[in-house]
Amino acid sequence: MATTKSTIIKGVQNIRTYAGRVDQSGQPYHYQVYLRIGALEMEKARRTKERESAMARVNNIDARFREIEAEENALLKKIENDRCERKSAQTNEQKSTTGSFKIRY
Fold this sequence. Notes:
Helix content: 55-70%
Radius of gyration: 44 Å
Distance between the termini: 139 Å
Largest sheet: none
Order of helices and strands: H
Structural class: mainly alpha
Oligomer: single chain
Number of helices: 1
């Protein structure tokens, strides 16, 4: 008995598909270029936002450094003034002492 075309059983493996055959020639080249440009523009916008945020943080840190320096200088001046006042008070105290008695004003 001869096998005819109608008696051959075909399975899923015999079904032809276009899977795996998709190549870039099916899409217009300009489409890919515009898609890439759009992706680059979005990344640029994101990076710009990150940069602005980072610069704002750096500016805040710099401002705080200036505040710290000003406060340190004010405290050092206060210490120096207190030393000068104590020295002048001791000098006045030494001038006003007579014998074993100390007179304080």
